[in-house]
Amino acid sequence: MMKTYANIxxxxxxxxxxxxxxxxxxxxxxxxxxxxxxxxxxPAEGWAAVEADGVWSFAAPIPPVPTDTELKAAAxxxxxxxxxxxxxxxxxxxxxxxxxLLSDAEKSMFKAYALYKLSLNKIDKQPGYPATIEWPTSx
Length: 139
Hints:
This protein has helices at residues 23-26, 68-89, 93-98, 104-120, and strands at residues 3-9, 12-19, 32-35, 48-52, 55-59.
């Protein structure tokens, strides 16, 4: 009968091994293997493993909460990427706009991008920044 075993080291699932063989004959006796065949949900590599009174329990790792500095850095990186795309879309249009060389449709598009870029540069003024950001829609 096929069983699934978890190799545990330092309280963490290192890897899983499905086998129909005798796990005690396959590995060094110092390696800790736990039968997780009937555990639901099945633990995965990196999960915490705790034994109490002969009963094992498993928990998925909790991802670290990003710091305010990390959230700001990610937001500014996203903003810069969006600004770069907007600048590419309007490349060369500023001079043409000032010289009144754009068609009405081009003027409308240029103004929409100008508003979009202005909104991108004001994301840090939004309530909840940097944890929550309502990104403006690109024209």
